[in-house]
Amino acid sequence: MTEHSISNSEIKDLVSQGLEAASAAATSAALQDVRVAYLGKSGRLAAHPYFQTIKDANPEQKKIIGADRTAATTALNAAIDARKAELEVAELNARLASEFTDVTLPATPALRGSIHPITQVTEELIAIFADFGFSVAEGPEIEDDFHNFSALNIPESHPARQMHDTFYLKGDGKEPFPVLRTHTSPVQVRTMVSQKPPIRIIAPGTTYRSDSDMTHTPMFHQIEGLVIEKNVHMGHLKGLLHDALAAFFGLEKLPMRFRASFFPFTEPSAEVDIGCKRGKDALVIGEGSDWLEVAGCGMVHPNVLKNCGLDPTEWQGFAFGCGIERLAMLKYNIPDLRTMFAGDVRWLKHYGFNALDIPSLIKGVAA
Fold first, then answer.
1. How far apart are CA 265 and CA 262, in angstroms?
2. For residue 112, what pLDDT band results from cuts at 50, 70 and 90?
3. Spatial distance between the Cα atoms of 361 and 39, rounded to a whole number of angstroms
4. Quick count: other Cβ atoms within 10 Å of Cβ 217?
5. Does pLDDT of 54 surpass 50?
6. How far apart are CA 272 and CA 293, in angstroms?
7. Which are the contacts of 83, defined by CB distance < 8 A and separation ≥ 6?
């Protein structure tokens, strides 16, 4: 209904004034003032004497007055909404123009970018494990059932396969559906299938699980390690993790313990805890009588070796994995995981690293 269907001439004039005011509004705030002035509970439309007479009018008159109120409100709302859309576009363009940065200009301290803590920690870990003879292996983030589950001795009934834990994709519509990889372990499988032992690799990368809270995000980063050789055992695994974690945290000695656990792809399996002291305002690594879980590990299950074409009577191996965000939070005192993905430049300026400050064991990777 338009203003032309309004029967009362005073209301027509009032609506015309409102349309002019909406059209003249130069900012969103000014337009909101117009909306309140004309359409608010105590606005000019509601307070007009013509609409006050509806309570004493006969049924036929009530229909006319009600129709006039609807037509007037509709006309004003439409004009205000249209003007709002115009102002939002203009204000956005003005903001984009004012925030424009010429990326071709020479770098200045104000414009120089920072390395994200996730990237920094990944590079630190690569530098540490490179010193132990590990190479970096990569694989696709969209995986098939075999590499993500079956080859890793994960049965079809395992909870990790359920949709509330895993992001499934339709693919070609045929089951089993492809998934966004839930860990970087498929990289280990692909390496064992394509590369002859001995194998010594780490696999950093992005992984996905259907989980979100202060310490979990649907997308996160892991780093996993795999060693396949003859006559390796848990002692080698424990020694490697101790020295690697001590180097990462910059400690000469690091209290560490293994707790028995269960993973389908390793046997025996263990959770890795490091010693710490929990204070009121800080967590100190390497001191105190408390323990903090940082990784999972174990000897590669014989079934996994068989699935990858290796003879478990000839080859043994161990594997380990940990969350990169978790290590970054512990080392650099980052309280909330979600802030890492917020895209806040102020946060990155505070927690970020100099782009030229490349981690190496020569100068030390511990900040």
1. 9
2. low
3. 69
4. 17
5. yes
6. 6
7. 22, 23, 25, 31
Separation in Å, CA 47 to CA 37, 39, 41, 77, 259: 10, 10, 8, 17, 74
Distance between CA atoms of 15 and 11, rounded to whole angstroms? 6
Residues 273 and 293: beta-carbon distance below 8 Å: yes
Name the token pair of 219. 């997308």
Alpha-carbon torsion angle 189, 194, 195, 196, nearest 10 = 100
Q: What is the distance in angstroms between the CA of the first residue and the CA of the last residue of the chain?
A: 68
Q: Residue 139: CB partners within 8 Å, gap ≥ 6?
A: 147, 181, 184, 186, 187, 190, 203, 205
Q: H helices of the chain, where?
A: 9-24, 28-39, 44-47, 49-52, 59-98, 117-131, 145-148, 185-194, 234-249, 302-307, 324-332, 345-351
pLDDT at 1: 42
Q: Hey, is 265 helix, strand or coil?
A: coil
For the record, the structure tokens of 362 come out as 């020569």
Backbone phi and psi for residue 211, each to the nearest 5 degrees, phi listed first: -155, 140
Asked if 331 and 248 count as a contact pair (C-beta separation under 8 A), the reply is yes
Cα 190 from Cα 206, distance rounded (Å) = 16
Q: How far apart are CA 257 and CA 274, in angstroms?
A: 7
The answer to pTM > 0.85 is: no
**Residue 320 and residue 295 in contact, taking contact as beta carbons nearer than 8 Å:** yes
User: Could you give the CA distance from residue 344 to residue 122 in angstroms, rounded to a whole number?
Assistant: 20
- Residue 171: Cβ within 10 Å count: 13
Nearest of 99, 93, 96, 94 to residue 111 by alpha carbon: 99
| Residue range 146-192, pLDDT digits in tens | 999 999 988 877 666 665 678 888 877 677 788 999 999 999 999 99
Range from 1-5, 11-15, 19-23 carrying the lowest mean pLDDT: 1-5
